[in-house]
């Protein structure tokens, strides 16, 4: 996992890091589910610990996704402006 700012990462790096974070979080929750199944009396504590463990990963993935969405919106705005300019010139 990279500690770089989302703004400095390429689109491919953002996608790769989000996949990695999701994978780690899913593995952690799967592990918690197996532990809870083995010890139902402690299930609530096990799931709470899994949530605490994954919270930083989820926050990072959310920040990366926010940057990805912002990039797509900027790109869409540029394409819309280009289409409008082409339409005005063509008219």
Describe the structure.
- With 91 residues, this protein is an all-alpha fold.
- The chain is built from 2 helices and no strands.
- The mean pLDDT is 95.
Gap between N and C termini: 50 Å
Rough outline: elongated
Strand content: under 5%
The Cα radius of gyration reads 20 Å
Total count of helical runs of at least 4 residues: 2
| Share in helix | over 70%
Q: Unreliable runs, pLDDT <50, ≥5 residues? A: none
Mean pLDDT, all residues: 95
Number of extended strands: 0
**Class from helix and strand fractions:** mainly alpha
| Biggest sheet features | none
Sequence-ordered SSE layout with sheet pairings:
Blueprint: H1 11-38, H2 43-90
Features:
elongated, mainly alpha, 91 residues
Short description:
Helix content is 84%, strand content 0%. It is an all-alpha fold.
